[in-house]
Amino acid sequence: MPISIKHSTGVDWLPKLLVIDDDPNAHDLTDYYLNTVVSEMLHAFAGDEGIRIAETSLPDVILLDIEMPGMDGFQVCRRLKENDATRNIPILFLTNDKQRRHIVKALDYGGSDYVTKPFFPEELQARVRSALRTKRANDALREQALFDPLTNLANRRAFDEGLNASIADYTRNGHEFCLLLLDLDHFKAVNDTYGHGVGDEVLTQVGAAIRKRSRRYDVTARYGGEEFGLILNQTEPSEAWDIGQRVLEAIRQLSIFADDQQLRITASAGLASTLSCCTEIDAKQILQQADDALYEAKGQGRNCMMEAAGLLR
Ligand SMILES: [Mg+2]
Questions:
Q1: Kind of pairing, strands 305-307 and 16-20?
Q2: Which residues contact 146 (CB under 8 A, 6 or more apart)?
């Protein structure tokens, strides 16, 4: 799966906890003692089931048993830490006293902490609260590092990460994706004529328009000054073309006023796809194709979209 880049909600944070343990008793006890600490409790009774739930539900903290039939806790931990989507979820290992020698290994495998069985309720609650505080602080830092504050879109760094994740997903699983690059027309003139405050307002509203017309699994980014990038995962070129046209139309419809007159804001776009690249695709290649198409759109008089050679024929 491509990594998802989304905002954590700072205000209404409703933490989710996943328990992975083959012992049903452990589930009953954590339910009982932790229902005031977290908002939602998820349960898995085997390692592979736990990984699946972690990948789809993205909990905020995981309680992980070590001794389980099939995949043990160490293997589960390793798999979760290898996956970009689940890497940042803190894992608290559950150990019983005779497993205490495992604690070093558990922490070395990437566990954040451990809790010994049988649980001492206040300690379990305090350790989960502590893990959640760390998770929340890390999410906030990560968000600051990956988002462009002006447009609320992903920044260049997050875009590059997202593009590499989509390429890896294509290489490994054959999932096609499209890349749309978009550049505002004559934006320098807006800044020069009306000032950077108006320019920033344009960028903010364009960011909102792009987000509104994209889907949950797309990566939408401010790629450069007035340039935007959309990674449209598992999307046919014809569908990507329609999304691009809708975004361009939304930008034309923006209602921004300066000096008592409405600004005419338009953008040009270039579309590329894994289908327009060679089989050994890399980020540079697909970016170049989208950029060439964008350049062509500018040459055609701007306010339009062009596709990489042969893509829609
Ligand atoms: Mg067990």
A1: unpaired
A2: 5, 154, 155, 157, 158, 161
Structure tokens at 143: 């968000």
Distance 178 CA to ligand 1 centre (A): 45
- Smallest Cα–Cα separation from 60: which of 80, 38, 45? 38
Active site (catalytic) residues? 226
CA-to-CA separations, 62 to 27, 112, 196, in angstroms, rounded: 12, 10, 46
pLDDT in 10s for each residue of the chain, 313 residues:
344 444 444 456 789 999 999 999 999 999 999 999 999 999 999 999 999 999 999 999 999 999 999 999 999 999 999 988 899 999 999 988 777 788 889 999 899 999 988 889 999 999 999 999 999 999 888 888 899 989 999 999 999 999 999 999 999 899 999 999 999 999 999 999 999 999 999 999 999 999 999 988 899 999 999 999 999 999 999 999 999 999 999 999 999 999 888 999 999 999 999 988 877 889 999 999 999 999 999 999 999 999 998 787 6
Residue with tokens 């609650």: 125
Q: Are 231 and 177 in contact (CB under 8 A)?
A: yes
Query: Which residues are CB-neighbours of 259 under 8 A, at least 6 positions away?
Result: 194
Which domains are present in the chain?
Answer: 16-145 (3.40.50.2300), 156-307 (3.30.70.270)
21 alpha carbon to ligand 1 midpoint, in Å? 6
pTM of the entire predicted model: 0.64
Q: How far is the CA of 34 from the centre of ligand 1 (A)?
A: 19
Torsion angle of the four alpha carbons 266, 272, 273, 275, in this order, in degrees rounded to the nearest 10: 140
| Cα of 116 from ligand 1 centre, angstroms | 12
Q: What is the dihedral of CA 174, 176, 181, 182, to 10 degrees?
A: -150
Identify whether the C-beta of residue 163 lies closer than 8 Å to the C-beta of residue 282.
no
